[in-house]
Amino acid sequence: MLLAQSVEGDRLSRHLPLARLTQALLSIALLHCVFAAAGADDRIRPASYSGEAIEGVVVAPITNAPLKGVVVVANWYLDGVGVEHPKGQVFRRSLHIAETVTDSDGHFSFSAWGPRDVPSPAKDFYRMDLQQPWLYFFRGGYYFNSLSNGSPGALRTEPRELGPPIRSSEWNGRKMYLHRYPGSEPEYIEHLQSHGVGLFAGCNWNKVPRLAAEFIAEGERLRNVRGSNVILKLDDLAETYGGVVCGSPRKILHEYLVQVPRPGPAGRSSESK
């Protein structure tokens, strides 16, 4: 009886329409791809990240004179592109951001940190690309500068290239240059108006108070020299953002604004002072 049923089933399978059989095979293949992709995501998308220690020296070009008082920021941020953002916009949020100032030898350092979990639900679609961390440098009278790992274009083209959970900077232990502006205020103002803005968005400004104070002080100095500009002002900083209390910009930045030197129209008088 069982043999008869088996033979009959075999006859029926041979008479299934080709289209139905093809559809069934495609469905099985699709399910296999879905499960394989899910497993791959689990392997390559870290649930947490860490950052190794960073140190370096900031100097003037040509002379290699050390620059004291340069604000240095290290930023490890997450990029988010997923179904929550159907237009494909890139949303960023800092996982860890730190700030320091160069000493009389132009030296700066950042401690290692982590592991730090990617916050939920961000972990479902956020990633840290291979350029991380970004380093930012600024002092009044000098151009804002930023450095990261590798080539910006090549490292952002493959969204599945997420890299390791422990990140290091290619600039660790190296010499970095900061260029003094040549005295053309309009060009310098335009440069400052187009750089560093994203670092002060939301409540981020209270994580980089020295950098915010340096931008505010330089914007104020340039307004006294050239008139109106849209370089960062105290009133631009948010006290609350998305229901989160950032704090009072005037209270938090007061001690740093007092410390910022006010250079004359030609910038500071010495490269190393």
Report on this structure.
- The protein has 273 residues and is an alpha+beta fold.
- The protein has two domains: 53-180, Immunoglobulin-like (Sandwich), CATH 2.60.40.1120; 183-262, no CATH class.
- The chain is 30% helix and 22% strand.
- It is built from six helices and 13 strands.
- The protein has helices at 2-14, 18-44, 152-155, 185-193, 209-226, 249-259, and strands at residues 48-51, 54-59, 71-80, 91-101, 107-110, 113-117, 126-127, 134-138, 145-147, 166-167, 174-177, 240-241, 244-245.
- Strands 3, 4, 7, 8 and 9 form a five-stranded antiparallel β-sheet that branches. A three-stranded mixed β-sheet has the order 6-1-10, with no helix packed on it. A three-stranded mixed β-sheet has the order 5-2-11, with no helix packed on it.
- Helix 5 (209-226) packs across helix 6.
- The longest helix has 27 residues, at 18-44.
- The radius of gyration is 27 Å and the shape is globular.
- Residues 1-16, 30-43, 83-88, 153-157 and 264-273 have low confidence and may be disordered.
How many E-type strands? 13
Helix/strand/pairing class, anyone? alpha+beta
Using only C-alpha atoms, the radius of gyration works out to 27 Å
Q: What is the overall pLDDT average? A: 79
Please give the domain count. 2
Total of DSSP H or I helical runs spanning 4+ residues: 6
Head-to-tail CA distance between termini? 99 Å
What is the CATH superfamily classification of the largest domain? Carboxypeptidase-like, regulatory domain
Principal-axis shape equals globular
Largest sheet at a glance?
A: 5 strands, antiparallel
Order of helices and strands: HHEEEEEEEEEHEEHHEEH
Strand percentage, roughly? Answer: 15-25%
Task: Report the CATH architecture of the largest domain.
Answer: Sandwich
User: At the first level of CATH, what is the class of the largest domain?
Assistant: Mainly Beta
CATH topology of the largest domain: Immunoglobulin-like
Helix content: 25-40%
Spans of at least 5 consecutive residues whose pLDDT stays below 50 are 1-16, 30-43, 83-88, 153-157, 264-273
